[in-house]
Amino acid sequence: MSSADDPLSRHTDYGQIPLEEGSLSSDPIEQFRVWLDEADSEGIYEPNAMVIATVEADQTPRVRTVLLRGVSEGGFAFYTDYTSQKGRALIANPAVAAVFPWYTLHRQVKIRGTAHKVSEAESDAYFGTRPRDSRLSAWASDQSQPIDSRAGLEQKVSEAEKRFEGVDDVPRPERWGGFVIVPDSIEFWAGRRSRLHDRIRFNRDGDGWSVERLQP
Ligand SMILES: Cc1cc2nc3c(=O)[nH]c(=O)nc-3n(C[C@H](O)[C@H](O)[C@H](O)COP(=O)(O)O)c2cc1C
Questions:
Q1: Does domain 3-128+175-213 have CATH number 3.90.25.10?
Q2: β-pairing, 61-67 with 70-72?
Q3: pTM, 2 dp
Q4: What are phi and psi of 116, to 5 degrees?
Q5: Which of 23, 63, 192, 205 has its CA 20 to 30 A from that of 92?
Q6: What is the pLDDT of residue 3?
Q7: Which three-class secondary structure state does DSSP give residue 75?
Q8: Residue 64 Cα, ligand 1 centroid: separation in angstroms?
Q9: How would residue 4 be classed by pLDDT, with cut points 50, 70 and 90?
Q10: Comparing C-alpha atoms, which of 87, 181, 172 is closest to residue 135?
Q11: From residue 67, how far is each of 40, 48, 76, 82 by CA, in Å?
Q12: Nearest-CA residue for atom 12 of ligand 1
């Protein structure tokens, strides 16, 4: 295999679009929306997918992908099982980091903050938008718990189907709901030539944000 064929040996140069402090919105949430829309219009698959990192009780980190389901001045919302590994970790220690990895655009957005449960009304409203089968899966799956087999999981789905037979509006399980990541910092990263990337970080500063440029 020549080095060009080996993904571990490639040295791809990234984009030439500079990231200037003055060309970004002074509101990082607003700027995030602009980049999310561009990721979407540029055809990024699941542009709202973000990898989130949590800290376990023994201080070890864990990561996984979730889908962003809402963004506002209040923060970045996603939905999950509160009794899952991430759910338990965040309830015990709300420290969280997230990255939106938009590689083909030579962009990423990195967020640091704290995660808080959204209101039950918000979780109900979002759960209500999910297809019936996804709602039943939420009832059937005790997320992150081991199970003997796929057949065992499907059995739990059958039990949920039986339980909610004839019920049109399958309700939200109490253990399932949203978190909102309230950001302390939001970094916009743009790949540049020769690894001289642009990094602009917004840090929460009172009611507003301060801005700094970081070395790549
Ligand atoms: C593209 C993608 C989107 C995902 N979205 C979610 C999500 O929104 N919520 C969720 O709980 N899990 C989602 N998952 C599954 C998680 O990555 C993870 O496997 C699961 O939540 C269990 O994580 P935990 O054991 O660390 O709690 C998604 C996975 C992928 C690959």
A1: no
A2: unpaired
A3: 0.96
A4: -130, 145
A5: 205
A6: 67
A7: strand
A8: 6
A9: confident
A10: 172
A11: 14, 6, 10, 15
A12: 66
